[in-house]
Amino acid sequence: AQTVTQSQPEMSVQEAETVTLSCTYDTSESNYYLFWYKQPPSRQMILVIRQEAYKQQNATENRFSVNFQKAAKSFSLKISDSQLGDTAMYFCAFSRFKAGGSEKLVFGKGMKLTVNP
Amino acid sequence: DAGVIQSPRHEVTEMGQEVTLRCKPISGHDYLFWYRQTMMRGLELLIYFNNNVPIDDSGMPEDRFSAKMPNASFSTLKIQPSEPRDSAVYFCASRSGNTEAFFGQGTRLTVV
Question: What distance in Å separates the CA atoms of residue A30 and residue B19, rounded to the nearest whole number?
């Protein structure tokens, strides 16, 4: 069974600084997807970024980028120029690849990020 | 599309009562997931459906929980009888292929 581990339960950062959130996972699959979701106080789960395991290039979305290390089974999220609106719970998630179909997402326990003014 | 729609947003009920949570997935999504979120256990998958058929219900905690998907646009999660330890936020999500899962706003359930 796949597992996702987020070892840092909580972090804080000053506005405009850069912060990195860590995530490791365990799987025997060779093809899969990784995601970072954000959950602000509104409770809505919002996709931040996704990475396909077969792609060597790290995904980026504006201020958000990942460091995907497939051999180490590591998937960290870097937030540049942190903003107050980045304050939220962040969840790392794993999903096996399924041709022509879909699979469940397995989530880590989450990490609370606070951006201070 | 309006996204995944869940109702109610909040539910407060007394122990022993039946609770029904509702979900409307995004049109065209053929997979639907029910998750439960608590502080202690994080996000747990309860059950998921493919084309209205339950695929994996191994996460359903006990027989008090049941889920149905009578058609492609509607699913329910029922708890009968409810207990205080069922208090949590329940999320419904839908997905198509290997894209991300889209989540509803969640239902905060409080059993007193």
Answer: 41
Mean pLDDT by 10 residues, chain A (117 residues): 92 98 95 96 95 93 96 97 98 90 91 97
Q: Are A76 and A11 within 8 A, CB to CB?
A: no
Residue A88 burial (10 A CB sphere; 0-12, 13-18, 19+): buried
Whether residue A104 and residue B56 make contact (CB cut-off 8 A), yes or no, is yes
Unique residue bearing structure tokens 């999320």? B91
Subunit contact B42:A95, Cβ cutoff 8 A: no
Which site among B100, B102, B103, B107 would you substitute to test the A interface, given the most A Cβ atoms closer than 10 Å to its Cβ? B100
- A16/A79 Cα distance (integer angstroms): 10
Name the DSSP class of A30. S
Smallest Cα distance from B30 to chain A, Å: 9
Whether residue B1 is predicted with pLDDT greater than 80 in this model: the reply is: no
User: Which residues share a beta bridge with B89?
Assistant: B37, B108
Degrees, nearest 5: CA angle B107-B95-B61: 50
Q: Which chain B residue has its CA at the smallest distance from A31's CA? A: B98
| CA proximity to A106, closest of A18, A44, A29, A13 | A29
Instruction: Select the residue of B45, B91, B95 nearest A45 (Cβ to Cβ).
Output: B91
Phi, psi of B13 (to 5 degrees): -140, 165
